[in-house]
Amino acid sequence: MNNFDYDLIVIGAGSGGTRTARIASGYGAKTAVIEGDRAGGTCVLRGCVPKKLLIYGSEFSHQVEDAIGYGWETGSFKSNWKDLISKKNKELDRLHGIYKNLIITSGCDLIPGWGKVLSAHEVLVKNKSSKERKISAKKIMIAVGGKSSFPEFDGNLNMINSDEALDLKELPKSILIYGSGYIAVEFAGIFNGFGVETNLVFRSDFVLRGFDLDIRKKLTEQIENRGIKVFSKTTIEKIEGNDQFLTHLSNGKKILSDKVMGATGRIPNIETLGLNEIGLKTGKQGNIIVNEFNQTNIESIYAIGDVTDRINLTPVAIAEGHAFSDREFGNKNRFISYNNVPSAVFSQPPVSVVGLTLEDAKTLNIKAKEFVSEFNPLKNTITGKQEKTLMKLVVDENDKVLGAHMLGDYSPEIIQGIAVSIKAGAKKSDFDATIGIHPTAAEEFVTMK
User: Fold this and answer.
1) Residue 198: phi, psi to the nearest 5?
2) Which of 60, 137, 266, 388 maximizes the CB count within 10 A of its CB?
3) Torsions phi, psi of 302, nearest 5?
4) What pLDDT was estimated at residue 449?
């Protein structure tokens, strides 16, 4: 084929796909974007944004407890879940409109429907009314993200996933959440904050496998102190019920709840793309295998974001898409770095990290040591609440800071700034030479001895 309908077809109008298309179109590439749902993708419509809005809403119950400790007299205080969901959905509609306009006003064709890759240059688009059309392009970008994945056991389909949890019409009186990753921990905080009896069941010993061990232990302890019932080293054997659900656990216990939510992981959303039929290589989890150019084993087909299952963060997908379009259509030799990518878990309290843990350093045969600060924040001294903040710096033998880890209020905001320092190669002596802002939690990062 020498004559193509487009220079670039992007399958998926999430954050990564939208950025890819906009930048490519800005360089003059004729670009089509295929989206079967609504422009905006997982993060904007079914993930980061709506989840963070519900987290904000759930935190007010704890803030009222603090207010009482500071002498405020409070009367009736209760949430209106239906009103919150309505306002959340209104905001998502607004954001969807923005994403749709970004794609169209940048000169791209936004094509509604689901894409199936037919060959190195052809995509079949099937819309909701089952009408089909073929389009072709010199290059194809797959940016379809991931989807929820449930383990196999009797009654597993009785579980709701995170998409459904974000849009419950009624707030349940009780819920069991299965999982220990960021989605499970964040939703446990949401439901607990709204007064729902919350059970958290997971296979590992502490939440957030892969994070610093001390932070994992401390967060597990603190969410228990907030009233979440934790069942560690436990799996689900079966779920029975219709209106209410009886969950049988591997430790012999049975838990009755209004809802059961599965949050045991996500997998690349490739099921309908037809990749096996064209010989495109994927990994064990269905992740699309790409090289440093985000290129698959088929020269004209590329992939970015969660579908590649590398660093599954929205800003990474956006950066990958932008760099791709700069290289392929802007004549710029630009790549992104996957080192020292900061991340956050919006648990209650939140966790944020950048760089290596001490265990990571040992695995890489790097000689390193930790500097640790643990304290009860000033705010808690009047309320009497005991919920300690934990902060760490990991430093190598040449005084270079390899990682920063924090559990506590405002940690995502604080670590974002610390990430700039670590990315720039700061040494512990640079931290030590910096004057702290007092009284703050952040100042502990420049006073650790």
Assistant:
1) -115, 125
2) 137
3) -125, 165
4) 87
**DSSP category for residue 119:** S
Can you tell me the distance from the alpha carbon of 268 to that of 146, in angstroms, rounded to the nearest whole number? Answer: 4
How many Å apart are CA 41 and CA 49, to the nearest integer?
Answer: 11
* The token pair that represents 226 in the structure block: 């907030």
Token pair, residue 383, equals 């309320």
Instruction: Tell me how far apart the alpha carbons of residues 116 and 107 are, in angstroms, rounded to a whole number.
Output: 23
Tell if the pTM clears 0.85, that is, is over it: yes
Q: Tokens at residue 295, please?
A: 């290129």
Q: Hey, how many other C-beta atoms are within 10 angstroms of the C-beta on 227?
A: 12
Which one is the CATH code of 156-263: 3.40.50.2300, 3.90.550.10, 3.40.50.150, 3.50.50.60?
A: 3.50.50.60
Give mean pLDDT, residues 13-37.
98
Place of tokens 């689901």: 114
On the question of pLDDT at 1 being above 70, the answer is no
Round to whole Å and give the CA distance between 346 and 323.
28
Residues 401, 433: Cα–Cα separation, whole Å: 14
Pick the CATH number of 6-47+83-148+267-329 from 2.60.40.740, 3.50.50.60, 3.90.950.10, 3.30.1490.20: 3.50.50.60
Whole-number average pLDDT of the chain: 97
pLDDT confidence of residue 149: 94
Q: What is the mean pLDDT of residues 132-155?
A: 97
Residues found in the chain: 449
Residue 289 DSSP code = P
**Which residues have a catalytic role annotated?**
438
Cα–Cα distances in Å, from 220 out to 73, 206, 215, 311?
A: 31, 6, 8, 24
Q: Do domains 156-263 and 343-446 have the same CATH topology?
A: no
Determine if residue 294 is left, alpha or beta; phi over 0 gives left, psi from -120 to 50 gives alpha, anything else beta.
left
pLDDT, one tens digit per residue, over 145-163 is 999 999 999 999 999 999 9
The upper half-sphere exposure of residue 89, i.e. CA atoms within 13 Å in the direction of its Cβ, equals: 12
